[in-house]
Design goal:
The chain is α/β, with parallel strands linked by helices. The protein is built from 18 helices and 22 strands. It has two domains: 9-244, 3-Layer(aba) Sandwich (Rossmann fold); 264-336 and 421-498, Rossmann fold, CATH 3.40.50. The chain has helices at 47-54, 77-83, 100-104, 106-110, 120-133, 150-162, 180-195, 207-213, 236-244, 300-307, 329-334, 344-348, 355-360, 375-388, 405-417, 435-450, 462-468, 491-498; strands at residues 9-18, 21-31, 36-40, 62-67, 70-72, 85-88, 168-172, 199-203, 216-221, 224-230, 264-273, 277-285, 289-293, 314-319, 322-324, 337-340, 368-369, 372-373, 423-427, 454-458, 471-476, 479-485. Strand 7, helix 7 (180-195) and strand 8 (199-203) form a beta-alpha-beta unit.
């Protein structure tokens, strides 16, 4: 990148506050054409607020936006799009009932005013050209987007973003649900766009990927600019130190930290469901942390659903030695199970409700009397878990949707803990949250295990499972192909089992 290249975007001393929170406090940022500029920081650092200002979703309280050398105001998203700024959010904004071609053309349609007829042939031509650019020319344009895989939907979302004359592409955690191969393809597409002169702002918590993909990295902390550095001079340790402003000891449980007890808290026997899950048997002891690994489609998600009464199954489930039949989540909660779901914003968080209401939602009987909710009891339970889990909020009545991802995840965890479970099931527990919040959640899980809670972690993140679990079970095509103790768990053999290339089921 040439030193005398004119910046495409300059943000100068941007400030933005919400009730009780200063989200941005004088942040400045410069982005050049033909660069991938990563923005990192803990949840709540101000990354999303800054991008929403560029997208026209929010207005700054003060500061200046310079675009292609001239001051601009971006009062709403249409203006952002007309400038050539496109955003791909972590929660995809696709219409699942519309076709691939129709979704890709949504941005183009939205810029037209007045009564017009839709030309579906033009949609198809445009979509075909865009998908060819993304290396997805074989994708059926007539297929409803809701039937696509997550990776395919991600590419359709990017296709929609670049279907206009895009100058700046903003991506917020674009690969949080993608496999390594799908991520590699995405990164190749982004590098091609960079070579074509598009400026890419890339927001991610995956620091190794940030280092390999980006040209420059900007770190935000507590709503303030900390540093902008060339990626070639950065390291993971340096980035973590700038992000959190404190030492993060480790993301791994200390050696000798096993808390496994003899009592079996949770046992599954010959569990099957539809044609996917086949005769699965395993157990989790009190104080034990057991992980489940596997590639997308291996059956991990379906296993979670069966274990929490969300999916019919055959076979047997026992909690503390007692047979239970789980046909709905209420029964699972009654028998001492709690679930932290993978889709934090879709199924985990009730975004319009307050923090305290989210915490007590799974155990209303605890805060009710004669069928009536007792507000003092709700506040007491909410305050207890906010303090216990160090949830950073402006107040117990703050809306869940205004919290950072890491704090939302801790509220959802608090809701599970408020039911006083014997078994805690966590599905992708740290997806889309930063390294500091991860460390805090792992510390909470370690304390719960020490107190005798049986913990089942179902995750696509192998470092997470290797770092936290006493044992790891590996799934492939609905069956277990591997079981690894803590001492022999390593990424290569686990991946081999996850791809069906080997088995590792010896009893140790």
């Amino acid at each position: 990148m040439s030193d005398n290249l004119t910046p495409l975007i300059e943000l100068k001393q941007i400030k933005k506050g919400f009730p009780g929170v200063q989200a941005l406090d004088g942040v400045s940022l410069t982005v050049y054409p033909g660069e991938i500029h990563a923005i990192i920081g803990e949840n709540g650092a101000g990354k999303s607020t800054l991008m929403n200002i560029l997208a026209g979703e929010l207005q700054p309280d003060s500061g200046e936006i310079i675009f292609q050398g001239r001051p601009v105001r971006i009062p709403h998203p249409n203006v952002s799009q007309q400038l050539g700024i496109s955003v791909v959010y972590q929660e995809l904004a696709l219409a699942p009932n519309l076709t691939v071609a129709e979704n890709i053309s949504l941005n183009t349609v939205r810029t037209s005013f007045g009564l017009e007829f839709v030309n579906r042939r033009d949609f198809a031509v445009k979509a075909k050209a865009v998908l060819s650019q993304l290396g997805m020319a074989s994708l059926d344009l007539r297929q409803p987007v809701g039937r696509l895989t997550v990776a395919q939907q991600q590419m359709v979302e990017i296709g929609k973003a670049i279907s206009t004359d895009v100058k700046v592409l903003i991506l917020d955690e674009p690969n949080s649900a993608l496999t390594k191969e799908e991520t590699d393809h995405l990164f190749a597409v982004l590098r091609d766009l960079r070579a074509a002169g598009v400026a890419i702002i890339y927001i991610s918590h995956r620091l190794e990927e940030v280092l390999s993909l980006s040209d420059r990295i900007t770190v935000l902390r507590d709503g303030q600019w900390v540093e902008t550095m060339p990626a070639e001079s950065a390291t993971v340790d340096r980035l973590i130190a700038r992000m959190v402003g404190r030492e993060v000891d480790t993301l791994f449980r200390p050696q000798g930290a096993s808390t496994v007890q003899t009592q079996i808290s949770f046992e599954v026997k010959e569990l099957s469901s539809t044609a996917l899950l086949r005769d699965l048997s395993f157990m989790v002891h009190a104080g034990e942390v057991v992980g489940v690994a596997g590639l997308p489609g291996a059956g991990k998600d379906e296993l979670v659903e069966c274990c929490f009464g969300l999916r019919p199954y055959t076979g047997a489930i026992e909690v503390k030695g007692q047979p239970v039949r789980l046909t709905e989540p209420d029964q699972a909660i009654k028998h001492g199970l709690a679930l932290i779901p993978a889709d934090r914003r879709g199924t985990g968080a009730m975004l319009v409700l307050s923090v305290q209401d989210n915490i007590v939602a799974a155990n209303l009987s605890q805060v009710s009397r004669a069928g009536l909710l007792q507000r003092p009891a709700i506040r007491a339970v909410g305050q207890q878990y906010v303090q216990q889990l160090d949830i950073r909020i402006a107040g117990l009545t703050q809306a869940m949707g205004t919290l950072s991802g890491g704090n939302q995840q801790k509220v959802i965890l608090a809701r599970g803990l408020a039911t006083q479970p014997a078994v805690l099931i966590l599905h992708e527990p740290t997806r889309g949250i930063d390294v500091g919040a991860k460390a805090e959640i792992y510390a909470i899980l370690q304390q719960l295990a020490a107190e005798g809670v049986a913990i089942l972690i179902v995750s696509s993140e192998l470092p997470e499972l290797i770092g936290q679990c006493d044992r790891i079970l590996v799934m492939y095509q609905g069956a277990f192909t591997g079981e690894f103790d803590r001492d022999d768990a390593a990424e290569e053999p686990i991946l081999a089992c996850a791809m069906g290339q080997s088995t590792h089921l010896e009893t140790t």
